[in-house]
Amino acid sequence: MPRDSWIADLHIHSKYSRACSKDLELPNLAYWARRKGIRLLGTGDVTHPAWLAHLGETLEEAEPGLYRLKESIEHRLPPSLKGEPTRFMLSGEISTIYKRDERTRKVHHLVYFPDLESAGRFRASLVKAGCNLSSDGRPIIGLDSRDLLEMTLEAHADAYLVPAHIWTPWFSALGSKSGFDAIADCYADLADHITAVETGLSSDPEMNLRVSSLDRYRLVSNSDAHSPQALAREATEFDCDLDYYAVKRALAGEPGLTGTIEFFPEEGKYHADGHRDCGVNWSPAQTKAAKGVCPVCGRQLTVGVLARVEELADRAPDQQPSPQRVTHLIQLHQVIGEIEGVGAKSKTVDGKINALVAALGAELTILTKTPLDDVSRVGGELLAEGIRRLRAGQVDRVPGFDGEYGVIRLFQPDELRASTSDDGLFELFDVPRVEAKPRPRAKAAAVAPRKPVSAPPLPSIASPHEPFEPMLAGMEEVGTGLLDRLDAMQRVAASAPGGPLLIVAGPGTGKTRTLTHRLAYLCAEMNVFPEQCLAITFTRRAAEELRHRLASLLGPVAKDVTVATFHALALSLLRERDSSYEVTEETDLDQLVPRAVELLREDPDKLRWNWVFVDEYQDVDQHQYDLLRLLVPPDGNICAIGDPDQAIYSFRGADVGFFLRFSQDFEDARVVRLTRNYRSSAPIIAAAVQAIAPTSLIKGRRLDPAKVDLEAPLIGLYPAASTADEAGFIAKKVDELVGGVSHRSKAADTRGVTGATVGFGDIAVLYRTDAQATAIVETLSRAGIPVQKRSHNRLKDREGVSALIHEMRLAHPEGSVAARLKKLANEQTWAAADLLMPLAQRSGHDLERFLADVATGAEVDALDPRAEAVTLLTLHAAKGLEFPVVFLTGCEDGLLPLRMPGKQPTDDEIAEERRLFFVGITRAQRRLFLSHSARRTRFGTERETRPSPFLAAIDSGLLESYKEEAPRRPRDLQLRLL
DNA sequence: TCCTCATCTAGTCTG
DNA sequence: TAGATGAGGA
Fold first, then answer.
1. CA–CA distance from A501 to each of A613, A671, A749 (Å)?
2. What does pTM read for this prediction?
3. For the domain bounded by A481-674, which CATH number is listed?
4. Strand C bases with any atom < 7 A from protein Cβ
């Protein structure tokens, strides 16, 4: 005996998702599910904090792994729909945007969980990875698909992931624009955990069966509803037990999945090829003939799902029978709208459907099962005929393309004009009768008259997939000797004989490369002992980088070289005399170097390091300088490297004067200049040189591009009306550069950095003062763009860490730190608790040590995948970093150069501000955007501001000015962005 | 110990 | 303008 079958729709959204109806709340969803005929509904948006809370409050457990509404909605339903309440399965859709193999990938995924706890754990692990889950129910995150799958599987043994609408060009696993050629490639080593894929609105199982690599996956369909009315427009039919685990097993290949309800694939928004704005709607063959170029605008056409299937297909059509039932439908309101000659979403249609449903039952039942005689009796003959044709597949189809839905029609226009829509029993239900108007047919009119355009194709433009060449390609040529991989001046510096050596290395000229090669050359080819070498940096990060690169050049002996920060060096010198020397207080840290100097003065070192290297020499302060003088005699083997024009730390005692008088301090010093820049495009380098020229500390300062690309874009200059406008500009540009973060995005700006190669992690936003970040973080987050702001203490900023520690002390006074934290984490599903677990485990029972670790911001981040995000940094923090795309914001007089109220900056201070501007510009590799706002609030008062005087130094020929946008209401701005 | 009021500051950061 | 801090009173 056949089992009862039932219908599931497992991909929907809540009111917390962008561009979704405010009606998407659980009671409404439950009502509409009943009206449509859905037995099991995904909750959608399970990662959104407010929605997850709503789910927790509104749902109660039902069958294993499923939920139902606590409160009954039976009173809202007509008798024809009475029956079992809808079940809910915890579900969500995640949009991942990330780079793999130098291409930006954008893939949407559906995730499912059997209980609220595991959904909470999943959420927590995303937050830990740095994802912003609050501003969109369908969050955009910078994680690799593979890592997302891993997090899903780790949340619960029975959690699972289904790739969403796998064929859409911009946002799917197999998408032509930013996906992969096989599902398995997308999920890498975890691919075996994928057992089902969602075919999406623009494809049906028949099309998918042409690609044999998909044979191993169950094909499912869902509505992806953005309003309750759109539920069940596609759906999946099961006959297994109504239970989370049975569904999961059915999706993994056990019996239970019986079929899908599908759009006619032509109706999908991305079925055919074309350009919406140009009115070009082509078949794949037409596109092929024109080499993919739009005859109207000359750009690449948006290639649809049909073409993409053709591209990956290894079977002819109809070669493989579908193992499951496929039912093609349009929605009931479309059928009635067509018959009535009114919009499918009109009141008239809604009223008629209410009447039909009250008499005949759920909409899907009416469309697929109700005897046509009954349909005719209640809804009229025309409706019965329409449904008959629908069930027989006798429909007219105008394919959708480039984001525009296709149109499916059941009747010829004359068939409807002749009829008077005499619909019998509708009168019984007192539905207001609307006269049949001339049919506006909005959608059809917009699409149908656009005939295929057959103008000759324009010359092809560069493919948007082409990755740009790595900047260092020319330098990386493999040679025989160590120094063969350096350019001429780098080689002079690296191979210089002993004695004092000063390397003046401009930004992007291979400073670290030169330093490491010199060290390696001395050890490997000049018989210098690695133990005699000391390399000093300012930051742990720089030390780590140096160690890493030395190891790759020298191999195991690299570890005999002492690489240390000034502080670490001082500490080790102090500990040599007093092994118990401890740093207990922060103010102690400042004393490290002076103490070491004292000590060396009393008891001079025996010059155990014959070769001393100092990075960023322009940033040394008096104590560091004293230490160096004590370690190195005036004729000693010291190699200092740096760039006086990047001296930006005078406020903490650094004095560029030490750099400038190196030749007086050390006898017969050699000076080598590195001026060949491998980092930035020619316009960026030219602008940087012009910007620093007025007060450069280097005579005849120059910087030469290693490679000249005539296509390199100019520097963008945006005069914003307000700081909100400035932030909006950044959000819009980021969206364009990554090629759109959502379906609504407009055309990509792919110059210089082609669209498919810019990821969020390639973009930095720089500013002078931390206060500027607020508006930018807010605007970018609201636009769904992941951001990371580097903070002084990386843990301090994370949600509620200090509150959490306080609570931990109160709530769980007993037990190890880890156990107490774990208890708290279980109680609250709190991301911050998870974040602290690695530290807690390391500290074991020692609460004080744990607190110390938290306070010093110990490295917890390295333990987990970090999501790609746009980096927000102060200009100071940006030193030493580089990004393909840089936004240098707040280029205003008073901010850059910075002026504090009541203080007139000295010429030296203004010069240092200019150096900061120089540092900012030279962080950019391919694209640089400068912006300033006409008004800015500082210290509580808004003032008119003028562009930075530094901008005037840059030749206007290097700049491309963007027009200021007309002021818009915030809501409009948001819609326009996405 | 907690609360209120006045005063000050608002900028960049690494160990 | 707003928040953080410290003094002083209840």
1. 9, 6, 45
2. 0.84
3. 3.40.50.300
4. 1-2
